[in-house]
Design a protein that fits this description.
It is a single chain. Helices cover about 40% and strands about 20% of the residues. With about 450 residues, it is of the alpha/beta class. Helix 9 runs parallel beside helix 10.
Amino acid sequence: MPRSDNTRSRAAQLDAIFKAYDVRGTVPEQFNVDIARAVGVAFAEFAAAPTVLVARDMRPSGVELAAAFAEGAMSRGVNVIDLGLASTDMLYFAAGSLDAPGAMFTASHNPAQYNGIKFCLSGARPVGADTGLNVVRDRAERELASPSASVASRGTLSQRNVLDAFADHVVGFVNAAELKPLRVVADTANGMGGLVVPAVFERLPQMTLEVMFPELDGTFPNHPADPIQPANQKDLQARVVVGGFDIGLAFDGDADRVFVVDESGTGLSGSTTTALLAAAILRTNPGATIIHNLICSRTVAEVIAEGGGKAVKSKVGHSYIKQLMAETGAVFGGEHSAHYYFLDNYRADSGLIAAMFVLAELSRAGQPLSEVRKPFDRYAASGEINTQVDNPAAVIERVAAAFPGRPQDRLDGLTVDCGPWWFNLRASNTEPLLRLNLEAPTRAECDDHVVELLALITAG
């Protein structure tokens, strides 16, 4: 039986916002309270748990969207615990420590008009396209088409504050007594770092902390909460130098990612930080397995091998990394995008826990970060270069055809090994873009190959 226009419209709307590992779209054009309620119903049915946790970031739209989701879940007889304002890693901590599934309302680094949901099951287990997100999408579509009545025993709504427990958990990853006095400046970009960063550093009295743009403001009045873009780190880099800080920390909107800046104002890539953390973790976990995503620098796999560990390559995205960690028993995982995952954090990612490890490494080394980082800066990288194209799949095939005889893999997009240099070209899971990452032995070689690849990508 052919679908009606309304059914096709609902399907298209959900297809637009259900990504590979989360929900994300503009409010209210793509994502609204009706959809949020239907997704609440769908997630409650999928998770099949007596209680669901709900949290949100500082985006103004999050209040009514989270309330609508909670209403949908309660209509299925599920109790909802409202955690209120939280970082995404706080929601994961709650899902792990309280052993309940959760929904975090956030659009991470996206602009103010966006919102979305990151899901997890009890124990902070991931929910992605291959681990239930598509099921939630299909059930939400059915709910939108034919809203179901509330069950006889409606769920209840309660509030809970887990900030103190979360901050204690984060600090517990290092020996706080061994941390040296350091001057730290954090740019929280009006995001959730403004809530969680001070709470953690209150437990480290030997540290001097300054927070830039600490006000929770989902309109992002100072700069976008997207620190992977170099322009959004400039304020922090300048403040580090002018203020004489030992280290700078740049958090994204939901504060689950952190980019690090050394005392000279020079940023560390997510790959460099992953390699630094991998070396530190392998000292206390000899022979351990460590996950890295496929756009991380070659340095990461080299450092893991040098430390006696086993490196396992993953697709990009938190749900893939967490699933692979569970399958392999990995103790740590890192992404070039500055997501860092820890076995003892329920395999979930946390920028704050990563920051604790970096502070511990600085304290242990007794050297400035510009020196500590040197063994992990081995190649020149392009950074992520985004290009909007009409047909990403066709462009990827055209580029692949231009490198016959070179080893290629399709784990996530196209990765081509060109001997001394390599590149990955993949479609974004969250935005209509084609992403290029390229690495070469020198800056000049890297820049030359970037020009070569961009010409291929944009060729008519």
